[in-house]
Amino acid sequence: MMSNAEKQKPVFSRIRDPWRPRFTLPAVPLPPTRRLLFYGYAIPDGWLQEYALKHEHLLQARTHFRRNNANLANFAIRLLVSQTGVSTLTWEYALATKVLPPDVVVGEDNEVNVLAICATDEDSLIDRPSQEQVDKLQQIMGSRQPMWWVDHEPSDD
User: Which residues are paired to 113 by β-bridges?
Assistant: First the structure.
């Protein structure tokens, strides 16, 4: 038989920490679209790989690590997650906009690399990070500013 404390404890099946305040997303200044939207930073090709290589001492501890672009990028994302606590970080491709940092190159399909903090899907919005975590990420990103981006892939709907 369950105790009264166990019966009264709320169950949050989809939220890891329901009491942690989430950062407030800015309004979406984009036209309505059926595509997924990402909130994050445009980054140049190779930025994640360079970030991983800046932490060479951590890479050397990984004896079976194959150094290729995909593995370095994945390592950089895991490293950023551990440094900031932003567990929703992903590397995405988004449609290029008119406002781009000067070091970001537009790909042949009009896409740019985006380090996404969260997306407009329900799970990502529910699990979005706290303001403190986003501030830690902003310190790492320096002068880059996050903004809304449209997924380069059409929606499955």
Answer: 43, 93
- Residue 23 CA to residue 42 CA, distance in Å, equals 19
Q: What is the DSSP letter of 111?
A: E
Question: Which backbone phi and psi does 115 adopt, to 5 degrees?
Answer: -90, 100
pLDDT of 64-95, one tens digit each?
667 788 888 998 999 999 999 999 999 999 99
Q: What is the pTM of this model?
A: 0.77
DSSP structural state of residue 40? E
Sign of CA dihedral 94, 156, 18, 78: negative
Q: How far is CA 148 from CA 39, 45, 81, in A?
A: 4, 19, 20
